[in-house]
Write a structure and sequence with these properties.
This protein is of the alpha+beta class. The chain folds into two domains: 9-70, Sulfite Reductase Hemoprotein,Domain 2 (Sulfite Reductase Hemoprotein, domain 2); 86-213, 2-Layer Sandwich (Sulfite Reductase Hemoprotein, domain 1), CATH 3.30.413.10. It is built from six helices and nine strands. It has helices at 27-39, 63-70, 101-108, 172-189, 196-203, 205-213, and strands at 9-10, 16-19, 44-47, 53-58, 86-87, 122-125, 139-144, 147-152, 164-170.
Length: 214
């Protein structure tokens, strides 16, 4: 579909920040990451809105060495790419969960870092409480008792907008396939610099819906 593009983020002092591909970690994995942080003299860790760890203040020449030591990879955080998939614990852990948002997210992580006309944010919630805010992401999946409801075209950035419901009652297989179709159609038809919602506006909702569902 596209090449994977992952880049570190330059800081004011000349060091770099990197976003790690870890959203769920075991105590042992966390220990290994902490030991690597100390070894490479990293002073600060924060978290992104997609719940990924951000390592701030790392020597750009030592990023590969750090990742090997910590057994992590750098996640996509900048550029016109699919960003890290945001997801809640879902029914695997949460008493409110209706669908397995963790398993759904694992299926969609194959799109992370792929280049598109503009950035793409994907969020998955395991129930209508929508803790991950799927309605304000380019592509959002919300779990219900009957499957996943798919939102498309949302944004929480400078031009906030609520996504529209494309379809409902999707199985995990159907949701994965449809997200792929949406991304492929967007990649092949959108002008550079247009996010999915703006792209849909430019061609009309009916044409978009027919193209990805037909």
């Amino acid at each position: 579909m596209a090449e994977n593009s992952v880049k570190p983020i330059k800081q004011r002092d000349g060091t770099y920040a990197i976003v790690l591909d870890k959203a769920l970690v075991t105590p042992q994995e966390l220990k290994e990451i902490a030991e690597a942080l100390e070894e490479f003299d990293v002073k600060l860790v924060k978290f992104t809105e997609s719940q990924r760890m951000v390592i701030v203040g790392i020597d750009p020449e030592k990023i590969d060495e750090f990742c090997e030591k910590a057994k992590v990879k750098v996640a996509p955080a900048t550029g016109k790419v699919v960003r890290s998939v945001k997801f809640c614990p879902g029914k695997a852990l949460c008493t409110m969960g209706l669908q397995d948002s963790i398993a759904m997210a694992e299926r969609l992580m194959k799109f992370e870092g792929l280049e598109f006309p503009d950035k793409v944010k994907i969020a998955i919630s395991g129930c209508p409480n929508s803790c991950t805010e799927p309605a304000v992401r380019d592509i959002g999946l919300m779990g219900t008792r009957d499957g996943f409801t798919l939102y498309v075209g949302g944004s929480a950035g400078r031009k906030p907008r609520i996504g529209r419901v494309l379809t409902e009652k999707l199985s995990m297989d159907e949701a994965e396939e449809l997200v792929g179709k949406i991304l492929e159609f967007y990649k092949n038809n959108a002008d550079r610099g247009k996010r999915i919602g703006e792209f849909i506006d430019s061609i009309g909702w009916d044409r978009f819906k027919e193209s990805v569902l037909g």
